[in-house]
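> agent: user asked for a holo structure of the chain below bound to zinc ion. Plan: (1) validate sequence alphabet, (2) canonicalize SMILES, (3) run complex prediction with ligand conditioning, (4) return tokens. Step 1... ok. Step 2... ok. Step 3 dispatched.
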Amino acid sequence: MRPVEKKKPGDIVRYTDSNNQEIEHIIQENYPDYGDAKFPLASNIGQYCSYCEGYEKIHSLEVEHMAAKAKGGSRTAWNNFLLCCKICNTVKGVEVINDDFHWPHLNNTFYSFVYDETGRVKVNDSIPALSQVRAQNLLDLTGLHRYPGDANGPTPKDFRWKYRYEAWKLATDWKLKFLDRLITEDDIISRVKDKGQWSIWFTVFKGIDSVRARLISDFPGTCASCFDANNHYEPIERNPGSPDPI
Ligand SMILES: [Zn+2]
């Protein structure tokens, strides 16, 4: 899950609206109509689901409330917003929310999880125990780990595992082509921009620093300090010294 840096109230974002108007927008503390935060969020962190990482057209993206409205979370506060696809938002529903979760704007959520060629996503068992618990809580909340045949399988409309599986296959194929110089970094970046699944590509391109650097620099809001440029852009602690350093 791509770790991101959310802008703060008072910061400026720029985007082009559907009338081709260049908009310069100052982030507000509150959005009385929370849908108004969608363009600013998309400008800040890109048009991707914050959880499953799929690319979404702007009209399909939803402003997601981390602390659910039905459980007392603020309807209007910028600090309670992320972007989300319909599936993740539906699965997430109205769970009770507290500090016991990893979040992509607060934690290094690329460190939290591991992806594999089957399309599964699991908690990284090399991170500290408390971090593992909080990472697992986010998986349980979003149902991202649902997988066919498992006890808690996906609903009929939930293909998130399959998008990961297909992205892994393609990324593996493109890595070979890239090493054979049949495709370029630009090809890879434009593919990931069109489809998403950032973490799959970042995982598969381990060891190819130039592509990893572009995946960080070319995707809005990616937390660059979450990765060690001196060690092949491997993930590093985002909150060192805290009980949950990830
Ligand atoms: Zn999603």
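> agent: step 4 complete. Summary for user: The chain has one domain: 12-235. The mean pLDDT is 95.
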